[in-house]
Write a structure and sequence with these properties.
By secondary structure, the chain is of the alpha/beta class. It has three domains: 188 residues, Methylglyoxal synthase-like domain (Rossmann fold); 119 residues, Cytidine Deaminase, domain 2 (3-Layer(aba) Sandwich); 124 residues, AICAR transformylase, duplication domain (Cytidine Deaminase, domain 2). It is 37% helix and 19% strand. It contains 19 helices and 21 strands. The strands form five sheets. It has a six-stranded mixed beta sheet with strand order 8-13-12-11-9-10, sandwiched between helices. The protein has a six-stranded mixed beta sheet with strand order 16-21-20-19-17-18, with helices on both faces. Strand 19, helix 18 and strand 20 form a beta-alpha-beta unit. Helix 4 runs parallel beside helix 8, helix 8 runs antiparallel to helix 10 and helix 14 runs parallel beside helix 15. The longest helix has 26 residues. It is elongated.
Length: 520
């Protein structure tokens, strides 16, 4: 179709002046509204205000601007239908071939702490979505742009074709436009259905609408016979979340790579000191903090070198050359860090298949966690609770030393990221043995101690974290026999007194957190 007239009305004004200037150079007439029209006029762009074009002034405090037959007939007229064009000519109307519209910033409005329901309602766009949907429906006759990133490519096409845009490209933009309005409406629905009758906001809306954009198709899923893709959330802006990664080198990420990398990243970014987390099959197999990154890596790797083979390695500091040199001596699938020095990058490039990711460490957490079940979706608030020493309650006669307290908090933080049932042995800011995902806690305790033995690691004087309570004293007996001197657990079992008595009997410290960290 040939573009002769455009309607421009945008909230996000990125690149809009440059677009309008280029359109005028192509002799495209421009209609515009309100703030957009003023911006363009101030920039010297010739525009016609919609109210002048329709002969009908804006009214109701701007609620009615573009809702007029001259606008919507211009957008909805199908040029390939003679009866449409005859009707347009009879009414003295002209067609609009380009609609450039994006919507009131509703999500930014409701993100403000002082946003009232009235504020939110006033930032629900009516005319914008109506124009976008009309233009997208009529994509054979109208091009619609809702994203500033499309301006340059469309202008390039118009310049090379005499102001024409292909139907194929127009269809792609129409699909994008419908996704834009769908996401917009879903945010509004989620917000309004989360308000209770008394005006309070609920965590879980009555209608939950999710919006994700495909980021990449994956070679396969958990297994080669399964198809898979990775989608990014269009609504939730989780700063520092895994989806914001940049890949520097290596093969494409697989389904399992992404799942494991997310687990490693979520764990490592919780530490303040230089830290390294190595994950295999969704579980940490080595975690350590130290004064330097290389020391943290070596300590983490020493926990379980066998499991670390082909694992995911995450750091919470910029990756330097000396650490990268140590990393490439092992078989690793993915390396993650907030920064990577040029020296480290050159070293990692020696292993061209290793996937190297950069992720910013920023404050921010997922607002909700999801798990798909047959015909439904489980939704919960995220497990963002991190204990400090002031959350701990000593329940035994033996008091912990200051170093034991620090190690208990460290072990508890690691246990939060280990699949239940979780048992984690630690000492001096590093893991010694990890038991994960067993049906019984005592088996996790045995596996954790066996793994330490297999790595020739002594558990004498260690501390232990259990993600949930010990239902019987047998799990406690296993970790104490292995060498543990201090145990941290939530408490809450009907046999707590029996377990505490067993700890006193064996002269070890036990601390309750009153918070469980199941991870399924």
């Amino acid at each position: 179709m040939t573009i002769k007239q455009a309607l421009i009305s945008v909230s996000d004004k990125t690149g809009i002046v440059e677009l309008a200037q280029e359109l005028r150079q192509l002799d495209v007439a421009i209609l515009s509204t309100g703030g957009t029209a003023k911006l363009l006029k101030d920039a010297g762009v010739e525009v016609t205000e919609v109210s002048d074009y329709t002969g009908f002034p804006e009214m109701l405090n701007g609620r009615v601007k573009t809702l007029h037959p001259k606008i919507h007939a211009g957008i909805l007229a199908q040029k390939e239908l003679p009866e449409h064009m005859i009707a347009m000519e009879k009414m003295g109307l002209t067609t609009i071939e380009l609609v450039v519209v994006n919507l009131y910033p509703f999500s930014q409005t409701i993100a403000k702490s002082d946003c009232s329901l009235e504020d939110a309602i006033e930032n629900i766009d009516i005319g914008g979505p109506t124009m976008v949907r009309a233009a997208a429906k009529n994509y054979k006759s109208v091009v619609v742009m809702t994203d500033p990133e499309d301006y340059v490519s469309i202008l390039k096409e118009m310049k090379s074709t005499g102001c024409k845009v292909s139907e194929e490209r127009s269809f792609q933009l129409a699909c994008k436009a419908f996704s834009h309005t769908a996401a917009y409406d879903s945010i509004i629905s989620n917000y309004l259905t989360s308000i209770s009758p008394d005006g309070q906001h609920k965590i879980f809306p009555a209608r939950l609408n999710l919006n994700f954009k495909i980021a990449q198709n994956l070679r396969y899923g958990e297994n080669p016979h399964q198809g898979a893709a990775f989608y990014k959330d269009l609504v939730s802006n989780v700063l520092g979340g895994f989806a914001s990664y940049t890949q520097l080198q290596g093969k494409e990420l697989s389904y399992n790579n992404i799942a494991d990398a997310d687990a490693a990243w979520e764990c490592v970014k919780t530490f303040d000191s230089p830290a390294c987390v190595i994950v295999k099959h969704a579980n940490p197999c080595g975690v350590a903090i130290a004064n330097t990154l290389i020391a943290a890596y070596k300590r983490a790797f020493a926990t379980d070198p066998t499991s670390a083979f082909g694992g995911i390695i995450a750091f919470n500091r910029g990756l330097d050359g000396i650490t990268a040199e140590a990393v490439i001596k092992q078989f690793v699938e993915v390396v993650i860090a907030p920064e990577i020095t040029s020296e480290a990058s050159s070293i990692l490039a020696q292993k061209k298949n290793v996937r190297v990711l950069i992720l910013p460490i920023k404050e921010g957490n997922n607002t909700l966690d999801f798990k798909r079940v047959g015909g439904g979706l489980l939704v919960q608030s995220p497990d963002n609770f991190n204990i400090g020493t002031d959350h701990l309650k000593v329940v035994t006669k033996v008091q912990p030393t200051q170093q034991e307290l620090l190690d208990l908090v460290f072990a508890w933080r690691v246990a939060k990221f280990v699949k239940s049932n979780a048992i984690v042995f630690c000492v001096n800011g590093k893991t010694l043995g990890i038991g994960a995902g067993q049906m019984s806690r005592v088996d996790s305790a045995r596996i954790a101690s066996i793994k330490a033995q297999n790595s020739d690691i002594s558990l004498a004087g260690s501390v232990v974290a259990s993600d949930a309570f010990f239902p019987f004293r047998d799990g406690l007996d296993v970790v104490v026999k292995a060498g543990a001197k201090a145990i941290i657990q939530p408490g809450g079992s009907m046999r707590d007194e029996e377990v505490i008595a067993a700890a006193d009997e064996q002269g070890v410290t036990m601390i309750f957190t009153n918070t469980r960290h199941f991870r399924h």
